[in-house]
Amino acid sequence: MCSSVTSGGDGADSDPATQPYLKINPHLRFYNNQRGYVLTRIDRHEMKADFKTLSTVRSPGATASTKATFVIEDRVPGLEQTYLRPYNTPRSAMRPDRDLLQETIDNETRRP
Asked: For labeling, which of 1, 36, 67, 100 is most exposed (least CB within 10 Å)?
């Protein structure tokens, strides 16, 4: 599943390994805060999903790149992550886990 391409503006790259959504939703396998879409290909041997992210949603023709790829092979149970674009943590983005988790909950439960 993927969010709307332009929901919430541009968003920002994030490290899925530290994402609070994954900690409070154990059924999720991936999260990134950039906007984009999922490109899915299905053939006789596998289903492959590329999570594409856009550099910006504010400009037509913005660059799209693959953030992560997941594959389900025929007759092999389970989902396999086969690619994750590296994330470079900006120093200003480093915050305690507790603060990030609370901000995530606040953002998702706040009414417009």
From this structure: 1
CA–CA separation, 47 and 103 (whole Å): 35
Of 21, 87, 24, which Cα lies nearest the Cα of 53? Answer: 87
Q: Which of 98, 84, 6 is nearest to 50 (CA)?
A: 84
Rounded distance, CA 97 to CA 18, Å? 8
Q: What backbone phi and psi angles, to 5 degrees, belong to 37?
A: -155, 170
Instruction: Kindly report, residue by residue over 36-71, the tens digit of the pLDDT.
Output: 899 999 999 999 999 999 888 888 888 899 999 999
Q: What's the one-letter identity of residue 108?
A: E
- Environment class of residue 111 by beta-carbon count within 10 Å: exposed (0-12), middle (13-18) or buried (19+)? exposed
